[in-house]
Structures are given as structure tokens and as C-alpha cells.
Amino acid sequence: MSTYRVVQVAAANGPFELTEGEVVQPGFGQVRIAVEACGVCHTDALFVSGAIPGISFPEVPGHEIAGHIEELGEGARDQGWQVGDRVAVGWFGGSCGHCRPCREGDFIVCRNLKVPGWAYDGGFGEKVIAPVDALARIPDALAAADAGPMACAGVTVFNALRRSAARPGDLVAVLGLGGLGHLGVQYATAMGYETVAIARGPEKAGFAKQLGAHHYIDSTSATPVAEALQSLGGARAVLATAGNSDAITATVNGLAPRGELVVIGADTTPLDINPNQLLTGLPVIRGHASGTAQDVQDTMAFSVLHNIRPMTETVPLDRAEEAYRKMLAGRARFRMVLTTG
């Protein structure tokens, strides 16, 4: 029996355990991936804690997977895949193909979405079996440790911006300069937006400019964020990457008429927005979630074209606990990535 190393949590909020799993053959429409790198996302905490319905233990988290195909299941070759192909799998780990959203082509809101670490074992291991519709091809110029975070953090930010109401030349603000925000500023600038970075403290201004921001707003200054945005003409779009409802709320009155607030930072606290704010200036407020495998592929291609990379800290698989705790504590700069080499 062949085995591989895998990190799991035996019970909700339990310690990470390095153990061995049995190598199995991929089924119809599946491939087995030799994992080279897997990012550690804050959403992994929902799986590790058992906070999402349907999580079973032992739990193997990880939905920012990068590696190469080492075994094809029946039918995979017919869909254009070969052993050795470099692939990434993100939050979108496959769709059912038969629910109404799928039949309408809106696969990311599939009612039976197959998220790695939820629907099947995630990438905190040396091998993963995934359905072929979850696979995104990794460009030759992109390292596995960079491709992994692109499959969740990268595509979420990239897709949110390209599907926003903003057009090149418009003023676009990115709230937060963390794991999502540092990518958001780079993408916004590359897409041709007049980019505003919003974060806490004057000391982050230099970093924002290094990422390409044209303006910086210190949210702790005496000038309210909305007023600062309006002094620049009002934002056509605000990309809220910070998971802080108060900080997100503070941007609403900084939108231009019919401007758009796109929320990708998670928080359970309600936004403090009243109907009058919606009737004055007619802003649009919406959420955005990740993207399909093709969206991930688009994200990686765009990143290579514009030399955009996530800022990562890599650690070996057997130090998964350390990487996870550092991420939870907010000390990652800016994406923790597990490697199997």
C-alpha cells in the first residue's frame, strides 16, 4: 500500500496532526494531484473549527492548491488533461452541473459547490484528488508557491475588480492592505484605475505607494474616510478587503453617484447603513465570492503579464500548525504557504 503525508485535525479546533494517508486512484472525471504548495487562508478556520455545516472529522483543510497531475481518472484525458500538467485548485473545487445556478452557467454559486477541505480532502498534504472542472492551468512563469494563493485570494480580488462598475481611469479604492488588499492595489493599478489605498496608520503610506497606489488614506486620521474619498472626486468603486464592518461602513458616503461597494472581507457584524444613504447617490452594495477555474486561470495569466505576485511566507508541510496560528494571529506577511518539497 502506497501512502503520502497529510496534515489533519481530528476534532474541532484540535491540534494539527501529521499522519499518512492511503494513495487511491482517481475516479471518473477526476485527477490525482501531487501537491507542491498550498496556501493557508483565513477561511480554513471555518473548517478547522467545524463552524460550517457538513464538516466531518478528521478534517484536511486547504483550498489554495498548486501542483501537477500525477494520475488521470477515466474521462480526464478526454477533457484535455495529461499527466504532468501544472494545475491549481481554489475555493471553487468543482460544481454539480445540475442545480439551477449551474444550468444558468453561474457555477461559483452552485448549490452543491465542492470546496476542497469541505467536499473532499484539501491541500494540506502531498496529494489531492479533484474533479477536472476545478483545474486551472498554471503558467510556466508562475511558481507553485505563488499560484496557490492566486486560486483563492488572487481570483477573489481580481474578479471583484474586473466585474465592478469601474472602468480604466476611474477612482477605485481598496480598503485594507493585508492578504487580499496588497493584491487588490496591484491589480487595480494594472487595470488602469486611479487607485486609492485605505489602511490604518500613516506608516503604511510608503508601502501603499510601493504597491502602485496613487493615493493613500489613513483611516485613523482626523479626516473621515468618506470625506477624503470625496475630496478626490468620489470612488466609482470601493473594494472592501478588510473584514471590519465599521471600516467598510465608513466608505459608503465616499462613493461617487451610483458608485459600488464590493465586499470581500468577511465579518459577522452588520453594516451600519440606513435607507437614506441608499436613496442619496444611489450606491450599489454587494458581495463577491471567488471565481471558477477559468477565472483562476485568467487571474494567473494577468498576474504573469503584469508581474504581480502575492507576498508569501513559505513553511514546510510539517509546520502547518505554526503557519495556521501565524495566519490567525494576523502576523502573516501576507500569505502563509505550505510546501511539500
> What kind of sheet is the major sheet?
7 strands, mixed
Class derived from helix and strand content: alpha/beta
Query: Gap between N and C termini, in Å?
Result: 22 Å
Percent of residues in helical segments? Answer: 10-25%
Overall shape: globular
Q: Provide the low-confidence segments as ranges.
A: none
Q: Let me know the average pLDDT.
A: 97
If you had to describe this structure to a student in words, what would you say it looks like?
The chain contains ten helices and 15 strands. The chain is an alpha/beta fold and 341 residues long. Helix content is 25%, strand content 26%. The model has no long low-confidence stretch (mean pLDDT 97). The strands form three sheets. Strands 3, 4, 5, 6, 7, 14 and 15 form a seven-stranded mixed β-sheet that branches. The chain has a six-stranded parallel β-sheet with strand order 10-9-8-11-12-13, sandwiched between helices. The two termini are 22 Å apart. It is globular, with a radius of gyration of 20 Å. α3 packs across α4 and α3 (144-162) packs across α9.
SSE map:
Layout: E1 3-9, E2 16-22, E3 30-40, H1 44-48, E4 65-72, E5 86-89, H2 100-103, E6 127-131, E7 136-137, H3 144-162, E8 171-175, H4 181-190, E9 194-199, H5 205-211, E10 215-218, H6 225-231, E11 235-240, H7 245-249, E12 255-263, H8 275-279, E13 284-287, H9 293-305, E14 312-316, H10 320-328, E15 335-339
Parallel strand pairs: 8-9, 8-11, 9-10, 11-12, 12-13, 14-15
Antiparallel strand pairs: 1-2, 3-4, 3-6, 3-15, 4-5, 5-7
